[in-house]
From TrEMBL, chain A:
Keywords: Hydrolase, Metal-binding. SUPFAM superfamilies: Metallo-dependent hydrolases. Pfam families: TatD_DNase. Gene3D superfamilies: Metal-dependent hydrolases (3.20.20.140). This is TatD-related deoxyribonuclease. One of its GO terms (molecular function) is metal ion binding.
Automatic annotation (TrEMBL), chain B:
InterPro entries: EboA, EboA_dom. The lineage of its organism: Bacteria, Bacillati, Cyanobacteriota, Cyanophyceae, Nostocales. This is EboA family metabolite traffic protein. It comes from the Bacteria.
Length: 302, 287
């Protein structure tokens, strides 16, 4: 089966992850712009980060047969540094419409401060102006209230629920999100977010309509194979195959292909992989021979 | 409307849908009438979303018209998004040169690969030509081959505006990365003694590593060959493959040194085909 991981932070993952992901059937990933674990102290860091999302990371993924897309936005946490946030808002129009950018995101609330609300709304306006999708990060604390307020703001700013993906859902938020017509994404992330056994039950209970599974894997203890592993668990536990395919591939494609920046032909008829190609003088390879196809090539490290 | 604008308009009109064309015209109008900079930034990025990325379908007459307007302008390998992006760059108000360059700097410094190619390709068409020298030199430093090629090949900007140091670096790098030299516009006109010396040194490096060099390397060398270089040409004539021998013979024919003419006369077949016009540098552009 083919999989899409529509929410994963590859800039904190290794090239080896790409290799394993491809082997497990992941054909495309979406990397939402988020924070980097520690706050950035100037707008230049954002500029380089956005450039790497549309540039180097896209290239690195392509070298291992994975199509890379991204979303561009100012994340909720860093919206609280208002001086910086204002400068980042000026950068967004330079990146939002670049090739492979499928949405404004991930935006939303963390502490639900006034500053977070201000920059969230400004970015919704930008999305509306540019006719783009939005990817919403729901807060870890006070999640339900945060999710509801996010959705209300989206409607207030004229976005259609079909153009908005609400992520990091759980059993407490799913009904509200689906009921209002939004896409409901679930992050399979150890400890803090959604577990894969719980995910199986969510799909059993709510079906596969508008539900999306992702890994959100990043620099924390997380699993870049969360999507294929959850799919396997669903199959093992009797979820029909077409439902598994919908939540682990088709729905993400349907949601994000609305921008025209992502289409199945990107990976069904890809340009051939040339691992000798260089990007800005840096090869992904560090002395290895080009043409590595499988993780089993690494069993013996000579 | 400028002649360049007219041509690009005309070509796009026959290559993209009415709806896409209307979007582009709308954006051009907004930008040229002084809309906020973000309108320009977002539209510039968004061009492929509206126009697509297919090739422009240009006729021989179209290419001639381009050459008439700006000698060396060759849009034969341009795509519709590149043409559209160029029109947006041309729409940007430019009375204030500094402001114009500042906007360009912002676009350049945040550009993705596709945008960089369009930007460098359009340099010879943009206003304030002399202000883009640093930018062009920057493009030559790129390690993305398509970006380097966008500035170095089929682009009249470098020959018209770069100083010798930057120009020589560009030619040497083109040899280094294996770009076809005949696609460098103005190569013969901008040949110079330093470049000849750099290329000959490069040939020595390659030979020391038991590697060959492109025969085209000798093209900017002949007129400025000194006796050391003639000795190199002698080696190529004696040991090279056919193409290399032909290139060395052409280089000799272009050299004013009696030593080079004497060398060429030892290869009467090559000498006579050069004299009869059967062997020219154009033979290499067809390979
Ligand atoms: Zn995230």
């Amino acid at each position: 089966m083919m999989y899409i991981d529509p929410h994963i932070h590859m800039c904190s993952r290794t090239t080896y992850d790409y290799l394993v992901m491809r082997e497990y059937g992941i054909v495309a990933v979406i990397e939402p712009a988020f924070w980097l674990g520690q706050p950035r102290t100037n707008a230049g860091s954002f500029k380089d980060y956005f450039s790497s999302l549309v540039g180097w990371e896209r290239f690195r993924a392509s070298q291992f047969g994975i199509q890379h897309y991204c979303t561009i936005g100012l994340n909720p946490k860093e919206a609280n540094n208002e001086a910086l946030a204002t400068e980042v808002m000026e950068l967004l129009p330079l990146y939002a419409c670049k090739e492979g950018v499928v949405a404004i995101g991930e935006i939303g609330y963390d502490d639900m401060t006034e500053a977070e609300d201000k920059y969230f709304c400004q970015q919704l306006e930008l999305a509306k102006e540019l006719d783009m999708l939005v990817l919403i990060h729901t807060p870890h604390r006070n999640k339900k209230a945060g999710a509801i307020q996010s959705m209300e703001r989206c409607i207030e700013y004229g976005l259609d629920p079909s153009q908005v993906v609400i992520d990091h859902n759980n059993e407490e938020t799913v009904e509200e999100v689906l009921g209002r017509g939004f896409w409901a994404a679930f992050t399979i992330y150890p400890q803090t977010k959604m577990g894969n056994a719980r995910m199986v039950e969510v799909v059993r209970k709510y079906g596969c309509d508008r539900i999306i599974v992702d890994s959100s894997a990043d620099w924390g203890i997380s699993d870049p194979l969360a999507v294929p592993k959850t799919a396997q668990l669903m199959l093992d536990r009797g979820i029909p195959e077409e439902h598994v395919r919908a939540v682990c591939y088709e729905n993400a494609l349907a949601a994000y292909s609305q921008t025209g920046q992502m289409k199945a032909s990107d990976w069904l008829n890809p340009q051939s992989i040339d691992q000798r190609q260089l990007f800005s003088g840096n090869s992904v390879l560090r002395g290895q021979e080009p043409g590595i196809k499988s993780v089993s090539d690494f069993v013996l490290i000579e | 409307m400028s002649k360049v604008n007219k041509l690009l308009h005309h070509w796009l009109l026959k290559s993209v849908s009415e709806k896409a064309f209307a979007w582009l015209e709308h954006k051009q109008a907004q930008i040229s009438s002084g809309a906020a900079e973000r309108v320009f930034f977002t539209a510039f990025s968004a061009v492929p979303r509206y126009l697509g990325k297919q090739d422009l379908q240009l006729t021989f007459q179209d290419l001639e018209a381009a050459e008439d307007v700006i000698p060396g302008w060759y849009p034969g390998n341009w795509s519709v998004d590149q043409a559209g992006r160029t029109l947006l760059l041309l729409a940007l108000p430019h009375d204030d040169a500094q402001g114009y360059v500042r906007s360009l700097d912002q676009v350049f410094s945040t550009a993705d690969m596709g945008e960089l190619v369009a930007l460098y390709q359009s340099l010879p068409l943009l206003p304030h030509s002399e202000l883009h020298r640093q930018r062009a030199a920057e493009g030559i430093r790129s390690n993305m081959s398509n970006v380097f090629q966008a500035i170095a090949l089929r682009n009249p900007y470098p020959a018209n505006y770069l100083d010798n140091a930057a120009w020589n670096q560009m030619v040497l790098k083109a040899v280094f990365v294996g770009s076809p030299l005949h696609l460098i516009w103005g190569l013969d006109r901008r040949a110079n003694p330093e470049l000849a010396k750099m290329l000959a040194d490069y040939a020595h490096e390659r030979w020391a590593a038991k590697r060959s060099v492109t025969p085209e390397l000798w093209r900017p060398v002949g007129r400025f060959a000194d006796s050391a270089i003639v000795t190199d040409l002698e080696k190529v004539l004696a040991n090279g493959d056919t193409a290399e021998q032909e290139a060395a013979a052409l280089a000799c024919a272009e050299s004013p040194l009696p030593q080079a003419q004497a060398l060429l006369s030892r290869y009467p077949d090559l000498q006579s085909s050069i004299q009869q016009g059967n062997l020219t540098w154009n033979n290499f552009s067809r390979k």
